[in-house]
What does this fold into?
Amino acid sequence: MTVQLPQREIRRSFVLGVVNGALFEFAERLIDPPLVLTWFVSRLTSSNLLIGLVAPLGDAGWFLPQVFIAGLVQRMPRKMLSYTLAAVVRVLSWLLVAVAVWLVDDPTLLLVTFFILYGVARLAAGLGGLGFFEVVAKTIPPNRRGSFFAWRLLTGGLLALGAGAVTREVLNRFAFPHGHALLFAIYTAVIVPAMLAFILIREPPGTAVPTAPTLKQQLRRAGQFLRTDAVFRRYMGMRTALGLAGIALPFYGVYARNVLGAPEGMVGIYVAVRVAAGLVANLPWGAVSDRKGNRLVTLWLALGNGLIALLALGLVGWVAVSPYRGPWLPYLAVPLFLLNGALAPAGALVGNNFLLELVPEAERPLYLGLSNTLIGIVVLISGFGGLVVDLLGYAGLFGLSTLLCLLAWWWARGLPEPRVGQPPPA
It folds into this structure.
């Protein structure tokens, strides 16, 4: 049973959700996984496998556990409790990361400690993820969700305009690894009020499954979704291809550092460019989502990511044959981060936000859990991009990413637009 909320309550939930998203966007840019965290790990090890796993491991930790707790969440008339418990674990984990990075001197021990605590923090985020999207689905109407997520990213982008400058200043001022420890401490301080803002949302009761299905029953039903729901199957094909295409993302910064000679503080410029581009693109993407639907956003996202990978491939080729070298060389990678930032809001819209409209309310936690767990596996596999670099070089990695984006675009062409209620054109 869907509860019709008064407009006053919808506005309150909208504002609190935007505050939550804005603070998280600022915090995430301080430790930007494809750039800052990947850069951090590259200072501790030369293993391309471990370097390439940083960002995908974080994403996989968010996605993977969700199908396993979907049954528990389905039993809750109100889902906020799962988000709150996960929030406590996340804060403690990141606080321990900051302390460990400041105190531990041995690179190997620090690397192991970081990956363990980072994994726990991201798993906790995943455990709270279903609760987050369920609360959003119950408090924000479908025709406001595009704007809701766009405003989260827009206001976060305004705050995060300074994140690149903060990152650059901290990393230039404090010797490694103390600069990163300070960034992790600031991150922890910011996510506390972010999560408190979301917890203050007054969630109405919703549809609850009275009897808890076993995990085996849940997995059997989830398998039936994949066999019988053609739209969901095509949606998963699209997201799988996009997720695998993400193998290239962590290596744009690594390529800039290792091949183009980007200095330590350059990561702050890359972060600032990504944030600024996302800031400009947020509301336009939200408007497209609200007025035209998420299918169109999905098509453009797939083509845009393919263009980024193609540009990176062209950069590899140009650098390989060009005799010119100089301090300006790292700036040739700026367009990659510019486009990536501009497409980031679209990525937020075509994920769970799109799926919320494709599935029935009573089955929503299981659909979300199944989708996110499968994508978690995909994203974890994409972490082996370091092996692709070792085998095929950067050109092979970026070329593979381009092809996967084209495959995602092909899958997306067959998706319906739920708000129109008509099949897509052939």
In short: The chain has one domain: 12-201+227-413.
